[in-house]
Amino acid sequence: MKRITVFCGSSFGTDDVYKSQAKLLGKTLAEHQIELVYGGANVGLMGAVADGVLENGGKAIGVLPNFLKSKEIAHEHLTDLILVETMHERKTKMNELCDGVIALPGGFGTLEEFFEMLTWAQLGLHKKPIAILNTAGFYDSLITFVQTMVDKGFLKEVNRDMILISDDTDELIAMMKNYVAPDVAKWINKERV
Fold first, then answer.
1. Under a CB-based contact definition with an 8 Å cutoff, are residues 43 and 67 in contact?
2. Would you say residue 1 has pLDDT above 80?
3. Mean pLDDT of 82-94
4. At what angle do helices 44-54 and 16-31 cross, to 10 degrees?
5. How much is the CA Rg of the chain, to the nearest whole Å?
6. What domains, with CATH codes, occur in the chain?
7. Which of 38, 61, 110, 174 is 20 to 30 Å from 2 by CA-CA measure?
8. Is the model's pLDDT at 190 over the cut of 80?
9. Helix, strand, or coil here: 146?
10. Residues 44, 50 contacting (CB under 8 angstroms)
11. pLDDT of 95-116, one tens digit each?
12. Would you place residue 183 in the very low, low, confident or very high pLDDT band (cuts 50, 70, 90)?
């Protein structure tokens, strides 16, 4: 595993633990010699995870749309900053560059990015591990809701199990390194109705 994309908030949230865990994840990535791929900003948890990588001798690659660079939120000390035109190009480039994904606490954008990568995995478009760093139980309600999708027949258990979850950075990296994608097709055919 050479590079991991991290999706996370552009703010720090209401609890200092979110920032400290983001920095710790950055440090952990650097210690495992895994490069960070992320949204390229210097604000919120995005900036914290990049700082955690860079302060510990790691490499951080930002992918930022031009319209956000013009708002002066680009991190100025990255190993590399890739500028793109649209948010969709950003996600596509981040997917191309990474071997796996971790979601930290965040808002709509974080969830949208996380679920798009998860959906692509479900459809067999990639076999990368998709993980949640569940800092201070931030994602507990979401995890419960995903189980509701299974219970109500809208999601297969094998697809639920594609989401790797831990509140410990080292454990999460180990889970990702050992991940094997399921070999189950998403779509039902005549023989499997």
1. no
2. yes
3. 94
4. 30
5. 17
6. 3-177 (3.40.50.450)
7. 110
8. no
9. helix
10. no
11. 999 999 999 999 999 999 999 9
12. confident
